[in-house]
């Protein structure tokens, strides 16, 4: 039906619009819907991030130096991330996860995972 | 005259002093080597095989140049010690490449890991460089009248540099068997003293190791990690960090952060290289620094 078609079309346009907006926001370095932690200037930026259970966080090494993203409780470990490399992890369970860089342990970060809304 | 064509000129005096004409053309007392006491060895460090950035796009090439320069020395060192960060990211292929290049050395080589060699685990490091006498990684040996100790302060990732109590207990027992007059040479990747803690250039429990070393007449502690030469003395303990074979890092506090320092490409070989350490029969250590260009 044409109405359904228009609705789908609108959804596509909205989806594309959001994607474009997200891209623009990411390029501008502003807050974006994606959960990204930058490894920059020997720090995790932001150092504390709150997400919902099941969400993915991408860690991007924007530094000149290699780093790691290593959980204090050893529940996750990126291994060595060279300059420009990214690594992502899905935080399935609620909790507070502290992590650090195994090459520069004074770099510390925290991910707070909320229970989130059940569908 | 090419360096390799230099021949060691030895002349005896009544005191049994031998003189060695070095590659640089200067005369140095070499009585220790001639009398079977003392020795000369080479320290290299921080090769970072796998690093591929503009600060040095060819770290394999500069390691090869280092090996060739050491092999050209008119008198070969008793051994070469690599004080860690052999690789950049602890990958098996990086260890494989490093081992292949370093196998070209004419002198025997011993290794210590840096934090870049044990990312995630020390398994690959041990696969390539295990020693029968060093199941935990640290070890000691006697050579040329001196006692050598190789310490590891990069195994605890969250508190690197840290040696740990088990290693400190081993060190206490190891040193207890040594005479006060025995020259002690210590290798450790991260400096054992608080060189620049703001950048992690320190060993948290290094003071406990130094307390065990203070009773000896002459101690030399050789480290890497910071990609530059910095010397420091505390009583009878002499500290020296070494240049990298790959790239320099900023002087402590001279930049916002540590990390690879970009120098003009035609100046890179002038700020990387190796060091010789000559021990005389009194246990005094003479350090000589050699750049690659």
Outline the structure in words:
- The complex is a heterodimer of chains A (119) and B (293).
- Chain A is α/β, with parallel strands linked by helices and 119 residues long.
- Chain A is 23% helix and 35% strand.
- Chain A is built from one helix and eight strands, in the order H-E-E-E-E-E-E-E-E.
- In chain A, the strands form two sheets. In chain A, strands 2-1-4-6 form a four-stranded mixed sheet, with no helix packed on it. In chain A, strands 3-8-7-5 form a four-stranded mixed sheet, with no helix packed on it.
- Chain A starts with a helix and ends in a 5-residue tail after the last strand.
- With 293 residues, chain B is α/β, with parallel strands linked by helices.
- Chain B folds into two domains: 1-35, no CATH class; 36-291, Purple Acid Phosphatase, chain A, domain 2.
- Helices cover 19% and strands 20% of the residues of chain B.
- Chain B has six helices and 13 strands.
- Chain B has helices at residues 31-34, 59-71, 92-102, 123-129, 165-176, 206-213, and strands at 19-21, 27-29, 39-44, 80-82, 109-111, 139-143, 146-150, 184-187, 219-223, 231-234, 237-241, 273-279, 285-291.
- In chain B, the strands form three sheets. Chain B has a six-stranded mixed sheet, with no helix packed on it.
- Chain A binds chain B through residues 41-42, 63-66, 68, 70, 72, 77, 79-80, 82-83, 100, 102-106, and chain B through 50, 52-53, 55, 88-91, 115-116, 119-120, 157-160, 200, 256-260.
């Amino acid at each position: 039906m044409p109405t359904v078609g228009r609705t789908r079309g609108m959804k596509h346009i909205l989806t594309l619009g959001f994607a474009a907006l997200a891209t623009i926001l990411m390029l501008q370095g502003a807050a974006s819907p994606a959960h990204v932690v930058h490894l920059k200037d020997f720090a995790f930026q932001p150092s504390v991030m709150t997400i919902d259970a099941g969400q993915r966080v991408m860690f991007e090494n924007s530094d000149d130096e290699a780093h790691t993203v290593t959980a204090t409780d050893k529940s996750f470990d990126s291994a060595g991330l060279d300059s420009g490399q990214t690594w992502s992890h899905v935080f399935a369970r609620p909790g507070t996860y502290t992590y650090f860089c195994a090459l520069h342990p004074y770099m510390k970060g925290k991910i707070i995972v909320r229970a989130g809304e059940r569908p | 005259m090419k360096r390799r064509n230099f021949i060691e000129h030895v002349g005896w005096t009544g005191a049994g002093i031998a003189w060695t004409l070095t590659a640089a053309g200067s005369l140095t007392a070499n009585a220790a080597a001639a009398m079977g006491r003392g020795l000369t060895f080479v320290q290299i460090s921080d090769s970072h095989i796998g690093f591929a950035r503009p600060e040095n796009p060819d770290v394999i090439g500069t390691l090869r140049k280092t090996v060739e320069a050491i092999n050209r020395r008119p008198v070969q060192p008793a051994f070469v010690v690599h004080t860690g960060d052999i690789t950049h990211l602890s990958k098996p292929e990086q260890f494989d490449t490093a081992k292949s290049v370093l196998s070209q050395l004419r002198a025997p080589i011993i290794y210590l890991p840096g934090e870049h060699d044990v990312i995630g685990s020390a398994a690959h490091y041990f696969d390539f460089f295990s020693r029968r006498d060093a199941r935990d990684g640290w070890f000691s040996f006697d050579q040329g009248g001196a006692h050598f100790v190789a310490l590891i302060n990069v195994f605890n990732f969250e508190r690197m540099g840290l040696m740990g109590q088990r290693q400190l207990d081993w060190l206490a027992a190891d040193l207890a068997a040594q005479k006060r007059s025995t020259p002690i040479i210590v290798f450790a990747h991260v400096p054992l003293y608080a060189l620049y803690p703001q950048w992690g250039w320190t060993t948290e429990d290094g003071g406990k190791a130094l307390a065990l070393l203070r009773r000896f007449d002459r101690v030399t502690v050789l480290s890497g990690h910071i990609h530059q030469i910095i010397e420091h003395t505390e009583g009878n303990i002499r500290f020296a960090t070494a240049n990298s074979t790959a790239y320099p890092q900023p002087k402590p506090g001279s930049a916002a952060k540590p990390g690879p320092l970009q120098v003009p490409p035609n100046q890179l070989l002038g700020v990387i290289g190796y060091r010789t350490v000559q021990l005389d029969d009194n246990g005094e250590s003479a350090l000589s620094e050699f750049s690659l260009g």
